[in-house]
Amino acid sequence: MNGPRLSRARWLFLGAPAALLALGFVWYYGVEVPFWDEWDTPGRMLFQAAGGEITAGELWRQHNESRPVLPKLIVLLHAGVFGWKVKPFMVLSWVLSLAVFAALRRGVPGRRVPAGLLAVACAGLIFSPAQAESMLWGFQFTNLLPVLFVLLGLQVQNEVADLTRQYLLCAALALTATFAFTNGMVVWPLICPFFPALAARRLERRVLILTAGYLVVFGLTLALYFRGYVHPEGHPTREYVFAHPGIAASYFLAWLGGPLTRLGGAAIAPLPLAESVGAVILAGAALALGAGARRWRSLDARERLWLTLLAYGLISGGLTTLGRAGLGLELATSSRYSAFAMWVTVGILGWSATRLPRVAPVLAGGVIALLLPVWVGGTGLMSEMRRQRLAGAFALDLAALAPADPALATLHPDPARVRLRHARLLERGWSAPTWDLGWVPTAEVNPSDGGFYSWRETADGTVLVGWAADPRSREPLGAIFVFVRRGARRELLTGALVERARPDVVAALRSPAALHSGFEEHFPTPELFPGDELEVVGADLSARRLFRLNREPGSTR
């Protein structure tokens, strides 16, 4: 099984199928619209910049526990040239993932069989559909920066001969990581050149002086980071974990197992399965770290790479548990955490390939087997995210025409904030509408029947369901709109895209073209006055035509 080391080209070739599929996911499922937290960070900063009000304080402002100064600067510079675009940053996340995967090749052992399986397993984890939120949420590129800086720091230690330059470069990388994402501060100890020097018995006076300087800069960085720090509103206190150790332990195990147990594209993984897999991963991590600790002086660069990645993942899991366990166990397997949790499994796989070459293929094969159901049908969460974001983008374009449109809440819990910030960005030219909808409020309704709808009132509001298709071609119409008629005046209330599958409509119209003619819209029940009437119409957005939709018999309105 010994032989020439796996080449960089072959390593990339083995990871290419997963990487290219992930790029396809980003291209198809990514939607050019900011979502949820992005309207706060970097949305607030861009709102200020668009009005000429940007301050250093805004760049320094926390986002949850993070001070993402570097990512904010990147987004600000990009917006100044191209406007506020989120999809380029989804592609950037993919590029960073590819860079990290390529960097892992430095830890590949000189054995082709475990190295080949290692490449496939690592690529399957790094580009997995379990990463849906990191892939399709533009500002999530920040999640990948600390681990990239860890790998760069290890490369500096291996390739830069001058010790002073090593310390300076590693300090610069750790400093940058600290102001990229919260767990960036753990990069400081992980890439400190003192530990390789200690293992090599090079504790001369110069090493001690440089290490002392490194620690001073680390301490000053932490002091700066926590100056004016405020505990994020709505987040559990740190004491919660110590008051509920059982919940904390379950959360940590589920967090570890999440990337391998999010089956069929589910938003979260089954907790018992995730905890069981997490327990196995934790046992493997303890074995690898224990073996590494026993022979720490003789660790080579490859073994140190994998153990450092493993430690990075475990520390990230500890920090996540400390700050998030109180929000609920079910969130432990959330897709966004896969970008951190997967490094524990990757570290175990890589370490086993260097130290346990006979066991490594079995472990890599087991991980690949667990990943298969994650990949097969794994785009379910991505499909839902795409649908939700398209609905939000449509509501955003309707914001000026339907100020009270509740659908805007799909983008952020404070629609008024989104409307205000979007208006300024439009004025500055940093945002642009996806659809031209200005003609809708004044367009005449074609009397031809374009479909049917029904209302269903629930405790949470009103559900509008139905289908809308062109009366002649039977192809789905682009959208539906809901108006309130008050005498001669017609007020636009809300709208929705037509995109849901309706096989029953295909059968009724005898036209396969009508498959995606369905719609479903949820919104608060509108307050109607005597004489008011609700009108639902279908819209051909390209031809700028409205069609009448008929109410199903038995509908509540």
Written description of the protein model:
The protein has 557 residues and is an alpha+beta fold. Helices cover 53% and strands 11% of the residues. It contains 21 helices and seven strands. It has helices at 8-29, 43-50, 56-60, 69-82, 87-104, 112-126, 132-136, 145-159, 163-178, 187-190, 194-199, 205-225, 239-243, 245-261, 271-294, 301-324, 338-355, 360-375, 380-398, 415-428, 503-509, and strands at residues 445-458, 461-468, 479-486, 489-497, 518-523, 533-540, 545-551. It has a seven-stranded mixed beta sheet with strand order 4-3-6-7-1-2-5. A hairpin with a 2-residue loop joins β3 and β4. α9 (163-178) packs parallel to α12, α14 packs across α16 and α17 packs antiparallel against α18 (360-375). The longest helix is centred in the middle third of the chain and has 24 residues, at 271-294. The radius of gyration is 27 Å and the shape is elongated. The chain starts with 7 loop residues before the first helix and ends in a 6-residue tail after the last strand. The model has no long low-confidence stretch (mean pLDDT 90).
Features:
557 residues; alpha+beta; 7-stranded mixed beta sheet; 7 strands; 53% helix
Classification by helices and strands: alpha+beta
H/E series: HHHHHHHHHHHHHHHHHHHHEEEEHEEE
Question: Radius of gyration, Cα only, in angstroms?
Answer: 27 Å
Average pLDDT confidence is 90
